[in-house]
Amino acid sequence: GRAERERLRIAIQKSGRLAEPARTLLSACGLDWRVQGDRLFCHGESLPVDLLLVRDDDIPGLIADQVCDLGFVGRNVLAEQDGERRASGQPSAFREWRALGFGACRLALAVPDGWQWTGPGQLAGRRIATSYPVLLREWLAREGVDADVVRLSGSVEIAPRLGQADAVCDLVSSGATLAANQLKPVATVLESEAVLAGPVEPLEGVRGELAGLLLRRLDGALQVRN
Ligand code: PRP
Ligand code: ZN
Ligand code: MG
């Protein structure tokens, strides 16, 4: 059974912004892998620590289901999915173990360039497109604003031009995507970066010892960087 697995399993993004820095950081921790045929599972050679290459959205669920022990994922993904669990009455099943200092971005409210921004109250009664409905609803509640949340899984920035929404709430890194869609950021919902995610409770047994070793090396590698 999965509880007796004696190798640690870490999920990272298969491709995308966090993929390469995640592998570089794990290499700095002394890990290396033999890539298997499908390239989705990498067998750890120097330590019994294997890598699983997946979509970043799937990482919290893999930890919740104990398919993986740890994962490198954006705080934004972790926070949204933790909020989803809370909203449906499920207990927390993962948490942030370490901030990793790369992949910095923010989840931001953005409105058309032409708007004269006066504050959150301006969003009252408006439609806001986002892939982060839980985090957006929490922010709206904190600001005391009643708006309609339109859930989209991608291409959120184009929604105002398509007439699907009046504003958006999406990740901003360089700001180029917003600018290309004639939108401007006006408020921050969440400051994000890549994090090491793990279960709520510490791992036990062999995997607990491996995780401890990895954390010590990770903390050393992060200190050298700062
Ligand atoms: C993110 C985000 C924005 C874009 C912002 O998408 O959803 O679309 O990056 O970056 P910028 O401010 O540097 O232009 P990503 O490319 O990570 O793909 P995804 O939306 O499919 O996850
Ligand atoms: Zn081997
Ligand atoms: Mg995007």
TrEMBL record:
Cofactor(s) annotated in UniProt: Mg(2+)
Subcellular location: Cytoplasm
Annotated ranges, domain ATP phosphoribosyltransferase catalytic: 55-197
Known catalytic reactions: 1-(5-phospho-beta-D-ribosyl)-ATP + diphosphate = 5-phospho-alpha-D-ribose 1-diphosphate + ATP
GO molecular-function term, one example from the UniProt record: magnesium ion binding
UniProt-listed Enzyme Commission number(s): 2.4.2.17
Key word Glycoprotein present: no
Pathway assigned to this chain's UniProt record: Amino-acid biosynthesis; L-histidine biosynthesis; L-histidine from 5-phospho-alpha-D-ribose 1-diphosphate: step 1/9
Function: Catalyzes the condensation of ATP and 5-phosphoribose 1-diphosphate to form N'-(5'-phosphoribosyl)-ATP (PR-ATP). Has a crucial role in the pathway because the rate of histidine biosynthesis seems to be controlled primarily by regulation of HisG enzymatic activity.
Name of the protein described by the UniProt record: ATP phosphoribosyltransferase
